[in-house]
Amino acid sequence: MRTNDAQMLVLCTLADGPLHGYAINTAIEKLSGQRLGAGSLYGALARLEAKGLVEHLEGQGRRRPVRLTRQGRAVLEREAQSMARVTEHVFETAEPDRIGYLDRLAATDIVRSYQQVMLQTLDTRAGLSVLDLGCGPGTNLAALARAVGPTGTVTGVDISTEMVERARQRTAGLPGVDVRLGDVHALPLPDGSADRARADRTLQHVEDPAQALAEIHRVLRPGGRVVMGEPDWDSLAIDFPRLEISRAYTRHITDRIVRNGVIGRELPRLALAAGFTVADVIPVTSVFRDARAADDVLGLRRNTDRAVAAGYLAAQDAQEWLAHLAHGPFFAAVTLYVVVAEVERDGATGTTGGL
């Protein structure tokens, strides 16, 4: 709804039944985060009554309850339909193609920024053997191949046949690049066969992160290094006047959408348990000021609909939430952690390293 419009705010608050003036203002504060001044509230009520959109019921003085007329409810319904069309225009409703989504994500400044941190901390040099675990459509394989040069090797591993086929197409002709179908829980690689490994937003999806880390430890040589970039979805903060709605949306993402929703914060502990030394943990916070740009990453409309279906959000709250995100000043942020872990040169279990 147009939450900056006093008359529309009043109509919204009356959707569930009659209220008197003080209760209307309390409901407006809950909806928009601000109370109307007495003059603005009663001026809006007077204009709505003159238009035939609200009417006063029996009562005493300003304590008389106000309710929507049939005409007022029709206006409110038309506004809701209009806002729904607008939010559909702003936010994607269809599930995107998986490869297209990953390519689009890789082109954003936000992803490029933290991937540059990952590349720097990976410390890839000529002649090294590098693994890209969960390589997807091969977005990063060419850059890794350039880093290791003609004397090095790059192996991409992904569990999806579709992704492996696309990655092979994109790296055809690149010397030293091999793409394999495989599961990070049981990597198709011999013990101690790689110098470096990277996993970018891979462990948030796996069934058993601890087993995956044990496998990564197995295939790295003594002195080898893995760099992992994983989000902590519980850190997702989206500005909305009603904090409980934002929290419910984030809770739904963490609980139901992402298999390992807080893997970012868990990685240092899990890496230590797998036998690694944790050399560094680098937080990278992504900030979104544009609703469309955020939707490219977060799928706001699709995941809001899922939150309603799962009982995390009421339908009316979801409608108000999406309308505000589409029209109000937009702010969202989420933190991803780049974790650098190493295999001890003597094969012994390390301690906390640089933490």
TrEMBL record:
CDD domains the record matches: AdoMet_MTases
Membrane-spanning segments: none
Xref: Pfam families: Methyltransf_11, PadR
Domain Methyltransferase type: residue ranges: 131-227
SUPFAM superfamilies xrefs: S-adenosyl-L-methionine-dependent methyltransferases, Winged helix' DNA-binding domain
Alphabetized UniProt keyword annotations: Methyltransferase, Transferase
Cytoplasm in keyword set: no
GO molecular function, one term: methyltransferase activity
GO biological process: methylation
Residue ranges constituting the Transcription regulator PadR N-terminal domain according to the UniProt record: 10-77
Keyword Iron attributed: no
PANTHER family, per the entry: METHYLTRANSFERASE
Protein name: Methyltransferase domain-containing protein
Organism the protein comes from: Streptomyces albipurpureus
